[in-house]
Specification:
Blueprint: H1 3-10, E1 27-31, E2 34-37, E3 42-45, H2 48-51, H3 60-70, H4 84-97, E4 101-105, H5 108-125, E5 132-136, H6 145-149, E6 169-171, H7 176-183, E7 187-192, H8 208-220, E8 223-227, E9 251-254, E10 266-270, H9 272-279, H10 296-311, H11 314-329, E11 338-344, E12 347-352, H12 358-367, E13 370-371, E14 378-382, H13 389-407
Parallel strand pairs: 3-13, 5-6, 5-7, 7-8, 8-9
Antiparallel strand pairs: 1-2, 2-3, 4-10, 9-10, 11-12, 12-14
Length: about 400
Amino acid sequence: MNIRKLDKQHTWHPYNSLPSMTDILAVKKTYAQTIVLEDDTKLVDGMSSWWSAIHGYNHPKLIKALNKQASKMPHIMFGGLTHKPAVKLCKILAKLTKLPSVFLADSGSVSVEVALKTAILYQKAKGKNLHKFIALNNAYHGDTLGCMGVCDPQNSMHSLYGTYLPNHIFCNIKDIEKTIKKYHKTVAGVIVEPIVQGAGGMKIYDPKYLKIVRKLCTKYDLVFIADEIATGFGHTGKMWGCDHAGITPDIMTVGKSLTGGVMTLSAMCTTKNISETISNSSVGVLMHGPTFMGNPLACSVANASIELLLKSKWKQKVKKINKIFQKELEPLRKLSIVKDVRYIGAIGVVELTSDKYAQKLQEFCVKNKVWLRPFGKLFYSIVSYNIKTKELLKITRTMKKALENIDG
């Protein structure tokens, strides 16, 4: 079977045309930090599968949890039924997030949709018909319609949808205080990616702004939504991005690393105040129910992944990764095509002066046995916590060579 030929005929890849406008690589298998292509080429993975594989690939404890659950109950509907893996996971998430009411979903975008719905229902339960939100410029919260509405309308990939999307209020993080004060009577809540903005720009900001959001949302009874899908489970050096500010939001969304990149699963965690206010009002229920919500396989793997993370020395590992990113990437500032260099935790970012280099950079990296996928002006790497030093140096030095090759 010619996988790549068939792929071009039938498979529509994310953020791509059909047939694909770029070369799509066929993967045969994975292990540790390695992607093995169909022609047996081995690539060091610098993307951890869109920031989800925090333990690397095929970790034996996660595979064991998957197989054990598969032999008993791969799936069961969550409407009117429950099971041990889901209940255990909700208990763990409630403890980790300090948010005791947990709604399980099946992707990050869906968890954000549920978060937005919950905030609207909370306000409605209190007699307020509010459906707008304050979000940040360069925000990215997912690809479904509700999520796209709170993504940056000018700079994001969703600008093509125009007026079809809801009209929310956007500001720079430095203007968040005056924006909340100005619009607090007309919005249901505020949604941010804590500390690090993801695919919308990889911007890193001061934790003091999270404290401002927390204080003002409490003052005006707005729902503070922290989208920790990309930042959660240690990517910034702390368990949650919110931990940098020592605050707890009203709603937190988690995904990506929740199962260590093995299964699709997400969750919306919220306060008892919100869940009880909705449940005890005329609204009564949260009207959302994904078919694969609370999937036993995914919940079992998530439980194993969180246990594995908590028992590991992940903080020390992430700190070491950060030092390497700092040492290796800082010198790239001198290149004419580099606008900025940023790093925090297991995240290293080189922002370029133009978005025209992405494909050439990716091709160069693949030729040099590294998997990186630049996006727009962003040439970045987010790695698994158990990556070996020589593997991380292979990534950073390939980034350096790729940029020097283009810079001339």
